[in-house]
């Protein structure tokens, strides 16, 4: 049976009457890219997620008409380290709150505000949990150390990915890390050619296929700096050309709330990177944070900052 056969066998995949779990969302997001052998495993998991908890790997493989190695490969293709990690995710999903059941659908014009609030909250929580499980802490630590000793950090991103990059830059400035954010490709390429081996360049793209971000990051890499991709797809063109890949996890395929989930996951990775970078040179980070807090204290207290002193030279009286 070919992948095409399996796809035509179930044209109603998007509206299957199953719980919208994290595992199933990952499967739907990668469905078109899965080989025929792993598609058979995917179909078994979609039809009966409980089987992952009830069956050892060999029996699940037998039910799918394939091998245990293919089941392991399937787990890795949808973002897990292996079958045990896949089982753990299914077990976690079994205990989630009821309001998470409709996360994959688009919002309608007549949805009550209470439903919108619950869906957005559940989507955010699940996205953050999945991202926390997906990101590689060793890579994050390595990157934090490189940023702490870098001369300069350039961040590339377009649209909402650019907003996530702006959020990271604002945090990094406060601990003394020099950052610039580039969303316009001409300006970004200009910055990229000025990179050196003591610089870091980070590209943000949920899909990993934003042409401008790919071009800017690749150009920076050609000039010797450490390059980093923050993306949902570790097999994307952006990831393929990067030294370090920080994987996010927002697996709803369609907007509402996919664009929001992608942003949450990107900001979470940035916040985690910010804290780890601050830890590398804790004394410097503490001094800079204290200085920036003092600078804005008059505006936080509800008062008005004292006026700047007038240094205009005074003329002698006639």
From TrEMBL:
Record keyword Ion transport present: no
HTH rpiR-type domain ranges (all copies): 21-97
Any Pfam family matching the protein: SIS
Gene3D superfamilies attached to this UniProt entry: Glucose-6-phosphate isomerase like protein, domain 1 (3.40.50.10490), Winged helix-like DNA-binding domain superfamily/Winged helix DNA-binding domain (1.10.10.10)
Domain of life from the UniProt record: Bacteria
PROSITE patterns, alphabetized: HTH_RPIR (PS51071), SIS (PS51464)
Key words, A-Z: DNA-binding, Transcription, Transcription regulation
InterPro entries recorded: Homeodomain-like_sf, HTH_RpiR, RpiR-like, RpiR-like_SIS, SIS_dom, SIS_dom_sf, WH-like_DNA-bd_sf
Domain SIS, residue spans: 143-283
UniProt keyword Lipoprotein, yes or no: no
PANTHER family xref list: GLUCOKINASE, HTH-TYPE TRANSCRIPTIONAL REGULATOR HEXR-RELATED
Name of the protein in its database record: MurR/RpiR family transcriptional regulator
Native source organism of the sequence: Amnibacterium endophyticum
